[in-house]
Predict the structure.
Amino acid sequence: MMPKKQSAKQATALTRRGFLVSMSAAGAAFGFPRIAEAAQSFASNGEVIPPSSDQLFEPSLWYAIDGEGRVNVNITRAEMGQHIGTALARILTDELGADWDDVQITYVDHEKKWGGAPTAGSRSVWSLWSVYRQAGAAGRVALVEAAAQKWGIAPKDCTAEAGMVTGGGKTISFAALVAEGLSRSFTQDELKALPLKPHSDFRLIGQDVAALDINDKTTGRALYGLDAKVDGMVYGVPLIPPTRQGSKVISIDDSAAKDQKGYLRTIDLQDPSGIVPGMVVVVGETLMAAKWASDLVTVEWEAGETATVSEDDIQNLSRELIADETAGTLLDTGNFDTAPAFDTAAEVLEAEYTTSTVLHFALEPMNATAFVNDAGQYEIHAGSQWPALMTGWAQRALGVGPDKVTMRTYLLGGGFGRRVFGDYVVAAALTTKALGSMPVKLVFFREDDSLIDCPRSPSVQKLRVALDAERNITAMEHSAAAGWPSYTVRTEADMVKGIDGKPYDTAAISGADHWYEVGAHKVRAIANHLASQTVRTGFLRSIAPGWTNFAVESFMDEAAHKLGVDPVAFRLAHLRPEGRNAGEAPHSIGGASRQAHVLQRVAELAGYGREDLPADTAIGIATTFGQEREMPTWNGTAVQLHVERKTGQVEVQKLWMVIDAGTVIDPDGARAQCEGAALWGLSMALYEGTQIVNGQVDDRNLGSYTPLRMIDTPEMEIELVESVQAPVGLGEPGVTGVAPAVANAIYNAVGVRLRHLPMTSEMIREAL
């Protein structure tokens, strides 16, 4: 590979935004004179009071009640705007019977005892529903037993509600019971056997209550990674190599940067772990000193072998892989032998669907602060969706043992899957090591982050159905090729196995194994290693269902039109709760019947099929099941839009969504989650996407990468199905039905079928 020489940054004139940034660079920041202060606590009134240590009752590691009756709930998932702490605390509080005004939450720092699971895949409430209910029940049982013993009555004659235990005509507060001394422990088997409240006794779950962190977020007291500050701290700005992997530094020329006031030095990180290969960091006394100096540093790199790769190269390879019947892994769909049906088919329908590379662009730029603390540990302060993973990565990069790295986590100014990956943490750790343990805050400006982002992979999918003489579907095949995001965080040995014994990444195929009855159903997940090698593809809100559901629901719509059948009636005819599509306890009870319900309901809400709409205006519909078959969130989506034929411009006028997510913990928060997800889905449907050019993404900032703007936001109507079933995910499923609903609406409006995301106005104009 020939060396590639380039200027790391191009000097630019000072803009208005740059002036404001530079003026604020020396502004107030939040310091951490003591290590423990990184863990943040919140209460609804903003007045967090540390638990009294004189009398403290801890029924489990998840919470404690002090002698004043205050309940402090420990939250192990990251907060990035979804109010996860409030949701989990509400589950525990309702089961405990505490008063919501006495509750506060603490986002705990990374320790093994908390489990180390990531905040991703809309799994937080789903995975912790039983855990927090059992923990709450343990406290309630212990408090009731203590009160009953005090009064000499049976525990069954006592109740716990609003922080009080009542029974036999007497009442005592949680505070009084704890102050008198209370100790009770439970084994795991005992926890699982504890009686849980029926839904009819819930007082907080399903009701609108104040989020515990709203006060601090609105007053600015809540702390994000960018707020972290350590005495003596310097700042670092990265220089990104020409390829995401395989680049090596040949030479660094910082002679021009030495005249920049506040410039300190430039560091070749030389990462032995391979997480940030070829990265260089420019260090300054202030953030802007480092930034301006970085414009004056020239780095000569030897680029990796993907330096000439384009998006077309990746997509063409995906097509070749799909054409190779031996490529990929077969999923267990019950009956995957489609050959007989296709061999005898009277007719075969097929189509190809593609999606572009999609970037994250979280509002808070990637950042991490690192230093060596008094205990001799590398201490890293950052917002993170997966602290356990990042800690391990930092250990590998630093070449130290597990007791030598610790993370302090913060609120996240946007995650969406980007803060699953620890590249920015590793870079900060290596920088402080190179500086002789001097504290450093590393900040990735937006252009830097776009180049090191782990974007959603481009994808190619091929779908086929076999029809018999009566034009009934007898088999379906779905092959999907893309960069597998899990390659960034695990090996094939850690992945699940297909029916053929080969591994596959669920995050690259979920959604293809749908709940429609289609006879034999063959689903093939295919890894495009070129995509993963080029941009280190990763997780982005909704992950695979963002492309698989687009294909499935567009294809079902196409098939219905070709067969001359109403698309809603066609879907309903194939959503039969039979066999594996009947669902199972505890998370998919009802199966396909619940998906049929949300589809019917959203069609009613939207007035699907009405004939009084203006010319070139129509409603499209789609139904999905969110993230995974094991935790389906049933989703019906309808979109009404108008297409301007001359320009191809699409005006989305209204969006309807009906969601069955089982028990809804926080209705207001749930609607907000669905609205945000729907708008992201709309953004990726019509506006959002980039191309890979010469081994890097082509768009570096929001001037050329143009997601949905506020002026294009449609009216939305979100309906949550009332349910007593176990809760499932809500953060991402709302994304999944929007793109196919838009594609189906465009077809209904002007008769053109688009099979690529994003569906730009240029594509529509050309199709017309």
